[in-house]
Amino acid sequence: MTSAHQHSSTSTRRHVTTLHLTLDLPLRDHQLRQFRGAMAELAGWENRHFHNHIDRKRTTQQASLIQYRTVGGRASIFGIGEGVEQVRHLLRKTGQQFTMGGRSYTLRVRDLHERDLRIRTTPQPQKYHISRYIPLNKANFEEWKQTEHLADRIALIERTLTGHLLGVCETLGYHVGDRLQVRISDLRHTHTVRCFGAPHIAFDLAYTVNLNLPDHIAIGKGGTLGFGIQERYKERATRKSKLRVSELRVAS
Q1: Phi, psi dihedrals of residue 98, rounded to the nearest 5°
Q2: Rounded CA separation 63/218 (Å)
Protein backbone atom coordinates (compact mmCIF):
# COMPACT_ATOMS: atom_id res chain seq x y z
CA MET A 1 0.00 0.00 0.00
CA THR A 2 1.23 3.45 -0.90
CA SER A 3 0.13 6.64 0.84
CA ALA A 4 0.74 10.34 0.48
CA HIS A 5 -0.02 13.30 2.71
CA GLN A 6 -0.66 16.90 1.88
CA HIS A 7 -1.90 19.62 4.24
CA SER A 8 -4.84 21.76 3.27
CA SER A 9 -6.15 25.10 4.38
CA THR A 10 -9.20 24.91 2.06
CA SER A 11 -12.49 23.02 2.21
CA THR A 12 -12.58 19.24 2.51
CA ARG A 13 -14.36 18.82 -0.82
CA ARG A 14 -14.36 20.34 -4.28
CA HIS A 15 -17.35 20.57 -6.60
CA VAL A 16 -16.50 19.74 -10.22
CA THR A 17 -18.48 19.31 -13.42
CA THR A 18 -17.66 16.88 -16.21
CA LEU A 19 -18.93 17.01 -19.78
CA HIS A 20 -18.68 14.02 -22.12
CA LEU A 21 -19.26 14.93 -25.76
CA THR A 22 -19.44 12.40 -28.59
CA LEU A 23 -19.40 13.66 -32.17
CA ASP A 24 -20.99 12.19 -35.25
CA LEU A 25 -17.52 11.44 -36.59
CA PRO A 26 -16.14 7.92 -37.09
CA LEU A 27 -12.66 7.74 -35.60
CA ARG A 28 -10.01 5.17 -34.67
CA ASP A 29 -7.59 5.43 -31.79
CA HIS A 30 -4.58 6.06 -34.02
CA GLN A 31 -6.32 9.19 -35.37
CA LEU A 32 -6.71 10.83 -31.95
CA ARG A 33 -3.65 13.08 -32.33
CA GLN A 34 -5.05 14.39 -35.62
CA PHE A 35 -8.43 14.89 -33.98
CA ARG A 36 -6.89 16.81 -31.09
CA GLY A 37 -5.07 19.09 -33.53
CA ALA A 38 -8.25 19.69 -35.49
CA MET A 39 -10.23 20.62 -32.36
CA ALA A 40 -7.41 22.87 -31.12
CA GLU A 41 -7.41 24.69 -34.44
CA LEU A 42 -11.21 25.03 -34.44
CA ALA A 43 -11.22 26.32 -30.84
CA GLY A 44 -8.19 28.57 -31.41
CA TRP A 45 -4.57 27.68 -30.66
CA GLU A 46 -4.41 30.39 -28.01
CA ASN A 47 -6.65 28.16 -25.86
CA ARG A 48 -4.13 25.81 -24.20
CA HIS A 49 -6.83 23.59 -22.70
CA PHE A 50 -7.38 22.00 -26.11
CA HIS A 51 -3.76 21.01 -26.73
CA ASN A 52 -2.04 21.27 -23.30
CA HIS A 53 1.11 22.84 -24.79
CA ILE A 54 3.03 25.93 -23.71
CA ASP A 55 4.63 26.08 -27.17
CA ARG A 56 5.48 23.63 -29.95
CA LYS A 57 8.09 21.81 -27.86
CA ARG A 58 6.83 22.07 -24.29
CA THR A 59 3.73 20.66 -22.65
CA THR A 60 2.22 21.89 -19.39
CA GLN A 61 2.84 19.83 -16.27
CA GLN A 62 -0.78 19.96 -15.17
CA ALA A 63 -3.32 17.21 -15.73
CA SER A 64 -5.31 17.73 -18.93
CA LEU A 65 -8.76 19.23 -18.45
CA ILE A 66 -9.80 18.35 -22.02
CA GLN A 67 -9.19 14.76 -23.06
CA TYR A 68 -9.78 12.98 -26.36
CA ARG A 69 -10.89 9.39 -26.94
CA THR A 70 -13.10 7.17 -29.06
CA VAL A 71 -16.50 5.90 -27.91
CA GLY A 72 -18.19 3.26 -30.03
CA GLY A 73 -15.84 4.04 -32.89
CA ARG A 74 -16.65 7.77 -32.82
CA ALA A 75 -14.72 10.85 -31.75
CA SER A 76 -15.32 11.95 -28.18
CA ILE A 77 -14.16 14.80 -25.94
CA PHE A 78 -14.16 14.71 -22.14
CA GLY A 79 -13.98 17.99 -20.28
CA ILE A 80 -13.56 18.43 -16.54
CA GLY A 81 -13.47 21.52 -14.33
CA GLU A 82 -12.38 24.58 -16.31
CA GLY A 83 -12.28 22.41 -19.43
CA VAL A 84 -16.08 22.09 -19.38
CA GLU A 85 -16.64 25.76 -20.17
CA GLN A 86 -14.14 25.53 -23.02
CA VAL A 87 -15.99 22.56 -24.52
CA ARG A 88 -19.24 24.53 -24.21
CA HIS A 89 -17.63 27.31 -26.26
CA LEU A 90 -16.64 24.72 -28.85
CA LEU A 91 -20.25 23.53 -29.04
CA ARG A 92 -21.25 26.99 -30.27
CA LYS A 93 -19.37 26.09 -33.46
CA THR A 94 -21.66 23.12 -34.16
CA GLY A 95 -22.30 22.99 -37.89
CA GLN A 96 -18.99 24.63 -38.78
CA GLN A 97 -16.37 22.96 -40.94
CA PHE A 98 -12.99 21.77 -39.68
CA THR A 99 -10.03 20.04 -41.33
CA MET A 100 -8.48 16.77 -40.16
CA GLY A 101 -5.93 14.74 -42.09
CA GLY A 102 -6.39 16.88 -45.18
CA ARG A 103 -10.16 16.30 -45.30
CA SER A 104 -13.04 18.58 -44.39
CA TYR A 105 -15.67 17.59 -41.81
CA THR A 106 -18.68 19.20 -40.15
CA LEU A 107 -18.88 19.50 -36.36
CA ARG A 108 -22.01 17.54 -35.42
CA VAL A 109 -23.00 16.35 -31.94
CA ARG A 110 -24.15 12.76 -31.46
CA ASP A 111 -24.35 12.55 -27.65
CA LEU A 112 -23.75 14.80 -24.66
CA HIS A 113 -23.65 14.08 -20.92
CA GLU A 114 -22.93 16.54 -18.13
CA ARG A 115 -22.48 15.52 -14.49
CA ASP A 116 -21.64 17.14 -11.19
CA LEU A 117 -19.52 15.55 -8.50
CA ARG A 118 -17.75 16.44 -5.26
CA ILE A 119 -14.12 15.38 -5.13
CA ARG A 120 -13.32 14.52 -1.53
CA THR A 121 -11.54 11.98 0.57
CA THR A 122 -13.78 9.22 1.91
CA PRO A 123 -13.84 7.21 5.14
CA GLN A 124 -14.03 3.97 3.14
CA PRO A 125 -11.88 3.05 0.12
CA GLN A 126 -13.46 3.48 -3.31
CA LYS A 127 -12.66 0.95 -6.04
CA TYR A 128 -11.87 1.94 -9.63
CA HIS A 129 -10.93 0.18 -12.83
CA ILE A 130 -8.44 1.88 -15.14
CA SER A 131 -7.70 0.84 -18.73
CA ARG A 132 -4.42 1.20 -20.62
CA TYR A 133 -2.82 3.14 -17.79
CA ILE A 134 0.73 4.30 -18.58
CA PRO A 135 2.38 4.99 -15.21
CA LEU A 136 6.05 4.97 -16.11
CA ASN A 137 8.13 7.86 -17.37
CA LYS A 138 11.73 7.45 -18.50
CA ALA A 139 13.15 7.68 -14.97
CA ASN A 140 10.86 5.24 -13.21
CA PHE A 141 10.92 2.87 -16.19
CA GLU A 142 14.61 2.38 -15.44
CA GLU A 143 13.67 1.66 -11.83
CA TRP A 144 11.05 -0.80 -13.10
CA LYS A 145 13.60 -2.69 -15.19
CA GLN A 146 15.98 -2.95 -12.24
CA THR A 147 13.26 -4.21 -9.89
CA GLU A 148 13.28 -8.00 -9.78
CA HIS A 149 10.28 -8.89 -7.63
CA LEU A 150 6.73 -8.43 -8.91
CA ALA A 151 5.49 -7.23 -5.51
CA ASP A 152 8.07 -4.41 -5.63
CA ARG A 153 6.93 -3.51 -9.14
CA ILE A 154 3.34 -3.31 -7.89
CA ALA A 155 4.50 -0.96 -5.15
CA LEU A 156 6.22 1.22 -7.77
CA ILE A 157 2.98 1.49 -9.77
CA GLU A 158 1.09 2.35 -6.58
CA ARG A 159 3.50 5.19 -5.83
CA THR A 160 3.21 6.52 -9.38
CA LEU A 161 -0.58 6.23 -9.31
CA THR A 162 -0.66 8.16 -6.03
CA GLY A 163 1.33 10.95 -7.65
CA HIS A 164 -1.00 11.07 -10.64
CA LEU A 165 -4.06 11.26 -8.39
CA LEU A 166 -2.53 14.09 -6.37
CA GLY A 167 -1.73 15.89 -9.62
CA VAL A 168 -5.34 15.63 -10.79
CA CYS A 169 -6.59 16.97 -7.45
CA GLU A 170 -4.14 19.86 -7.56
CA THR A 171 -5.15 20.80 -11.12
CA LEU A 172 -8.81 20.79 -10.10
CA GLY A 173 -8.09 22.99 -7.09
CA TYR A 174 -8.68 20.34 -4.44
CA HIS A 175 -5.92 20.11 -1.84
CA VAL A 176 -5.87 16.66 -0.28
CA GLY A 177 -5.95 17.06 3.48
CA ASP A 178 -6.01 13.38 4.38
CA ARG A 179 -3.55 10.62 3.65
CA LEU A 180 -4.23 8.91 0.31
CA GLN A 181 -4.16 5.13 0.63
CA VAL A 182 -3.71 3.59 -2.82
CA ARG A 183 -3.77 -0.17 -3.18
CA ILE A 184 -3.81 -2.16 -6.42
CA SER A 185 -6.16 -5.13 -6.06
CA ASP A 186 -6.29 -6.68 -9.55
CA LEU A 187 -3.74 -6.53 -12.33
CA ARG A 188 -5.56 -7.82 -15.38
CA HIS A 189 -3.50 -7.16 -18.49
CA THR A 190 -0.23 -5.62 -19.54
CA HIS A 191 0.09 -4.09 -23.01
CA THR A 192 2.88 -2.62 -25.07
CA VAL A 193 1.40 0.47 -26.70
CA ARG A 194 2.64 3.41 -28.74
CA CYS A 195 2.03 6.83 -27.26
CA PHE A 196 3.44 10.01 -28.80
CA GLY A 197 5.40 7.85 -31.22
CA ALA A 198 7.23 5.79 -28.56
CA PRO A 199 6.54 2.35 -27.02
CA HIS A 200 5.25 2.23 -23.44
CA ILE A 201 3.97 -0.35 -20.97
CA ALA A 202 0.26 0.08 -20.23
CA PHE A 203 -1.81 -1.71 -17.60
CA ASP A 204 -5.44 -2.65 -17.08
CA LEU A 205 -5.90 -2.75 -13.33
CA ALA A 206 -8.26 -2.24 -10.42
CA TYR A 207 -7.29 -0.24 -7.36
CA THR A 208 -8.78 1.28 -4.24
CA VAL A 209 -8.24 4.73 -2.80
CA ASN A 210 -10.00 6.80 -0.16
CA LEU A 211 -10.96 9.42 -2.74
CA ASN A 212 -14.18 10.19 -4.61
CA LEU A 213 -13.38 10.77 -8.30
CA PRO A 214 -15.47 11.33 -11.44
CA ASP A 215 -16.01 8.46 -13.84
CA HIS A 216 -14.25 8.55 -17.23
CA ILE A 217 -11.41 10.84 -16.17
CA ALA A 218 -8.05 9.83 -17.67
CA ILE A 219 -4.82 9.85 -15.69
CA GLY A 220 -1.20 9.04 -16.45
CA LYS A 221 0.81 9.54 -19.61
CA GLY A 222 -1.31 9.82 -22.74
CA GLY A 223 -4.42 10.77 -20.79
CA THR A 224 -5.27 13.30 -23.50
CA LEU A 225 -5.31 10.53 -26.14
CA GLY A 226 -7.46 7.77 -24.70
CA PHE A 227 -5.00 6.14 -22.28
CA GLY A 228 -5.65 5.71 -18.54
CA ILE A 229 -9.43 6.13 -18.56
CA GLN A 230 -10.96 5.04 -15.30
CA GLU A 231 -14.41 4.45 -13.87
CA ARG A 232 -15.90 3.13 -10.68
CA TYR A 233 -15.36 -0.61 -10.45
CA LYS A 234 -18.31 -2.85 -11.31
CA GLU A 235 -18.27 -6.51 -10.39
CA ARG A 236 -18.95 -8.85 -13.31
CA ALA A 237 -20.81 -12.13 -13.20
CA THR A 238 -18.14 -13.82 -15.31
CA ARG A 239 -14.57 -13.00 -14.38
CA LYS A 240 -11.55 -13.73 -16.53
CA SER A 241 -8.45 -15.15 -14.92
CA LYS A 242 -6.21 -12.45 -13.52
CA LEU A 243 -3.46 -11.84 -11.06
CA ARG A 244 -4.89 -11.21 -7.61
CA VAL A 245 -2.46 -8.83 -6.00
CA SER A 246 -3.73 -9.77 -2.53
CA GLU A 247 -2.55 -13.34 -3.20
CA LEU A 248 0.75 -12.03 -4.48
CA ARG A 249 1.32 -10.06 -1.29
CA VAL A 250 0.68 -13.11 0.86
CA ALA A 251 2.95 -15.25 -1.30
CA SER A 252 5.76 -12.71 -1.17
Answers
A1: -140, 160
A2: 9
